[in-house]
Amino acid sequence: MEIKSTMAKIDRDKMKKDFKINISIKPQEGFKKMMEEINMIAKQAEKDNMLNLIKNMITYIGDDPDREGLRGTPNRVLESWKKLFGGYKQNPKELLKTFDKETYSQMVILKDIEFYSTCEHHMLPFFGKAHIAYIPKKKVIGISKLARLLETFSRRLQIQERICEQVTNFLMQELKADGAGCILEGIHFCMTSRGIEKQHSKMITSSLEGSFKKPEVRQEFINLIGNNR
Ligand SMILES: [Zn+2]
């Protein structure tokens, strides 16, 4: 069998010497099991590599990664990345448990949704509020799914403009909406950390697609978001 000849080529002693990898499962115990173990070891090696990298970053900054308060930091950073960059592992299409609408063709709005993202230019956080709206034509999406859709796109290395576009593009393409709009108000660390006078400045970006390009629809969207801004 083809697979068996590949297995024979895995030189255990060489792997142990070169990569400090010790595979405990023998080929006869099953190829699948052995591959699982190799994958696990590779994942651990990748993680160790990342932990070292973060340690080096701390040294580069000018601190001592081995002092008590920083000893667990590389691990905590990696843990926080799971949440901060969890969007890469989500497929927005999985959110589409849509149901056909009956007669509803009015604007659906979810406003003041909190979002957290990371700017791709500086790898610094930006966060704030999002307002998402669309006018259904054939399909509607659960309102909580709108918030999760935003998460899928925001929990990545991003620029604020692109998040807006990705949300509206998704609603237009996947829901075949009549129109869609997304407004984001974000505070960017890369802006606020550089000057006291910019501490409270917000960046506002929007994407309007389909019928939301019409002035009266856009106005309705803005009115419904509220005039307390
Ligand atoms: Zn930035």
The CATH homologous superfamily of the largest domain corresponds to: GTP cyclohydrolase I, C-terminal domain/NADPH-dependent 7-cyano-7-deazaguanine reductase, N-terminal domain
Question: What structural category arises from helix and sheet content?
Answer: alpha+beta
Largest sheet: 5 strands, mixed
Overall, the morphology is flat
CATH level-1 class of the largest domain: Alpha Beta
Rg from C-alpha positions?
Answer: 24 Å
Q: Low-confidence parts lasting 5 or more residues at pLDDT below 50?
A: 1-8
- Second-tier CATH architecture of the largest domain: 2-Layer Sandwich
Strand count: 7
Helix content range of the residues, please?
40-55%
Q: Hetero groups bound? A: zinc ion
Strand content: 15-25%
CATH topological fold name of the largest domain: GTP Cyclohydrolase I, domain 2
Mean pLDDT across residues:
87
Describe this structure in words.
The chain has nine helices and seven strands. With 229 residues, the chain is of the alpha+beta class. Helix 3 packs across helix 5 and helix 6 packs across helix 7 (160-174). The radius of gyration is 24 Å and the shape is flat. The model is unreliable at 1-8 (pLDDT under 50). Zinc ion (ZN) binds next to loops.
